[in-house]
Amino acid sequence: MVHPGWVCLLQSLLLLARARQNRGPAGACPLRGKSELNSFLWTIKRDPPSYFFGTIHVPYTRVWDFIPENSKKAFQQSHIVYFELDLTDPYTISALTSCQLLPQGENLQDVLPHDIYRRLKRHLEYVKLMMPSWMTPDQRGKGLYADYLFNAIAGNWERKRPVWVMLMVNSLTEVDIKSRGVPVLDLYLAQEAERLRKQTGAVEKVEEQCHPLNGLNFSQVGQRLAGWHRALGWLLGQT
């Protein structure tokens, strides 16, 4: 999903609940030393204890080595794990995709200023052209193709709402493309929870994430578009 600092989609809380009874007394994951400070792990003191863990939507390999052991231990020893959204549920993914679309019969060309739409189209053509050179040998070895990857990220872009297109453009960089295929931290933890046969759930619905962004008025979106216009001008100046 996504970006830090301007949409709540980029931050989430992971609730790690019901630690095993044999873990010992509440607060059995104390902070010990510098490496465990600012671990984003909060303890709910009860018997057994529960935990809140703050995550960010980036490939887990970028941050995994920096997650303190107390947080990893809390995850391993918990029976039930609640995520922001259930990213392993096909319905969740489908609903996230649908909520990004403009109303039936509308296209991005109808709602964007012509110059911005033209710049956006040129930039996406440039990204599609560069995509093969941005991909890693490991990605190719796993059977990922540039056209498939581009369509997975930017497919149906002309039907998306402007705010979602801006998020999409932010993720179409060489660095981000090289990380594609690596699950974001939330998804990795969800996959691990399933693999370890933990009970899982979600604390939010898709609508609770989509409606705030889709509810931005034209003035608010226009301010974003102004900055986006300048950014695209710089990007396309490089092509």
Automatic annotation (TrEMBL):
<dbReference type="GO" id="GO:0004222">
    <property type="term" value="F:metalloendopeptidase activity"/>
</dbReference>
<keyword id="KW-0378">Hydrolase</keyword>
<keyword id="KW-0472">Membrane</keyword>
<keyword id="KW-1003">Cell membrane</keyword>
<keyword id="KW-0879">Wnt signaling pathway</keyword>
<keyword id="KW-0479">Metal-binding</keyword>
<dbReference type="Pfam" id="PF01963">
    <property type="entry name" value="TraB_PrgY_gumN"/>
</dbReference>
<dbReference type="GO" id="GO:0006508">
    <property type="term" value="P:proteolysis"/>
</dbReference>
<keyword id="KW-0812">Transmembrane</keyword>
<keyword id="KW-0325">Glycoprotein</keyword>
<keyword id="KW-1133">Transmembrane helix</keyword>
<dbReference type="GO" id="GO:0016055">
    <property type="term" value="P:Wnt signaling pathway"/>
</dbReference>
<protein>
    <recommendedName>
        <fullName>Metalloprotease TIKI</fullName>
        <ecNumber>3.4.-.-</ecNumber>
    </recommendedName>
</protein>
<feature type="signal peptide">
    <location>
        <begin position="1"/>
        <end position="19"/>
    </location>
</feature>
<keyword id="KW-0645">Protease</keyword>
<comment type="function">
    <text>Metalloprotease that acts as a negative regulator of the Wnt signaling pathway by mediating the cleavage of the N-terminal residues of a subset of Wnt proteins. Following cleavage, Wnt proteins become oxidized and form large disulfide-bond oligomers, leading to their inactivation.</text>
</comment>
<comment type="similarity">
    <text>Belongs to the TIKI family.</text>
</comment>
<dbReference type="InterPro" id="IPR040230">
    <property type="entry name" value="TIKI1/2-like"/>
</dbReference>
<keyword id="KW-0732">Signal</keyword>
<dbReference type="GO" id="GO:0005886">
    <property type="term" value="C:plasma membrane"/>
</dbReference>
<dbReference type="GO" id="GO:0030178">
    <property type="term" value="P:negative regulation of Wnt signaling pathway"/>
</dbReference>
<keyword id="KW-0482">Metalloprotease</keyword>
<dbReference type="GO" id="GO:0046872">
    <property type="term" value="F:metal ion binding"/>
</dbReference>
<dbReference type="InterPro" id="IPR002816">
    <property type="entry name" value="TraB/PrgY/GumN_fam"/>
</dbReference>
